[in-house]
Amino acid sequence: MNVPSFVRPILSSPFPWVVLAGVFLGAAIMSLTRRTRHRRDPERARTRKWVAACVLASVAVVFGLLAVFIPGPEKIAHVSFAWTAGIAAGVSFLALRFRKSLGIPVLVLLIAAVAVLGLFFRSIHAFTGETEIATVRAIAVAGDSMKIELARRGAAPVLLTLDGVEFSPVVKVVIFDDLPVFLGAETWYRFVEMTSYDRNGTQSKSRYQLPQAPGISERLWEFFERYETRLPGVKTVQTERPSKRATEFATYSIRVQNDGGVEIVATR
């Protein structure tokens, strides 16, 4: 299953689950300490108090189990997460138990914390996100030639026979500065051709020009290339030529990074 890049930090860390477990644990403790003598029906209020406490504690246990099994048991074996759960439980208890005196300040702090965490995860997504533009499957590699299958999004796969032992996508990119990337800008690209290199690193004459290059138009890329020093927010405009030695029957993903660069990653 493909998980969005901005979700991966949440799933790979016990921290969010531990905080939620602490919040519900604090709410359960608050429910247990709530007075019922002044109610019209103290016995009924006491029963509802225990039921609410059991439900809240059960939810806390569920989040605790998620903190163990989603990121992995080895990641939660640290005393800092116990402190985190305790602090979250204490803040939750105080905010709910003394709502008139502490509720509003704690609510303001909680909103600020959520905003900071949102910006934190947004920055992780901005600087670690990527876009897959094509996949390559090595059908056969023999001597100094290889047969690969190039599959692009929205286009039928094509079989290519290239000289050499390394294949190389040629991708023209417009890379933006850190601030535009943080605000949501992603690297613009234009995937133009496939070429290859021999064992000595010399580029071969065999190449495949993509009939319809995905990404931005050639005219737009040339405009950014010509005026890159005058355009605000643009870090560089260049042509990327990463290469990868082909292994028979292996599959590779060609990815453009949000903050610039093109990578070839073996997937299986």
Can you describe what's shown?
With 268 residues, the protein is of the alpha+beta class. It folds into 2 domains: 8-126; 131-266, no CATH class. Helices cover 43% and strands 26% of the residues. The protein has helices at residues 8-12, 15-32, 42-69, 79-97, 99-128, 178-182, 218-226; strands at residues 130-142, 145-152, 158-163, 166-176, 188-197, 208-209, 234-240, 244-245, 251-257, 262-266. Strands 3-2-1-9-10 form a 5-stranded antiparallel sheet, with no helix packed on it. α2 packs antiparallel against α3 (42-69), α2 (15-32) packs across α4 and α4 packs across α5. It is elongated and about 90 Å long. The protein starts with 7 loop residues before the first helix and ends with a strand. The relative contact order is 0.12.
Descriptive terms for the model:
268 residues; alpha+beta; 2 domains; 5-stranded antiparallel beta sheet; 7 helices; 43% helix
Topology, pairings included?
Layout: H1 8-12, H2 15-32, H3 42-69, H4 79-97, H5 99-128, E1 130-142, E2 145-152, E3 158-163, E4 166-176, H6 178-182, E5 188-197, E6 208-209, H7 218-226, E7 234-240, E8 244-245, E9 251-257, E10 262-266
Antiparallel strand pairs: 1-2, 1-9, 2-3, 4-5, 4-7, 4-8, 5-6, 9-10
Helix pairs in contact: 2-3, 2-4, 4-5
